[in-house]
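Mods, move this if it's the wrong board.
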Amino acid sequence: QVQLVESGGGLVQAGGSLRLSCAASGRTFNNYAMGWFRQAPGKEREFVSAISRSAGSRYYADSVKGRFTISRDNAKNTVYLQMDSLKPEDTGVYYCAADPQYYNEHYAPRVLNEYDYWGQGTQVTVSS
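Not the wrong board. Structure tokens:
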């Protein structure tokens, strides 16, 4: 079992930046691939970014590529999402997720149902 707590959300103007953090507790953090997903009002939860255990593989949704950067600090049990050049369409609740990857340190899922553990989410609102 791993517990995830997101922070760093807020209200920002278009073109601004935010950095989300997801702190993990419980089992060994570096056994987990980590992902970020988001859900806008009235829409399904969608993939944003993911990072493998080793941080050697990073994936991004096309809509955020070049603007968002995912990273992790295994010593601090934390994964980050740096969000730059924010747009109103980035508005939503951002969720952190963890997927145990004991045998493949280079893989991180991009599909919602492959993740076993989820945080409660943090609200990001981008005004135009």
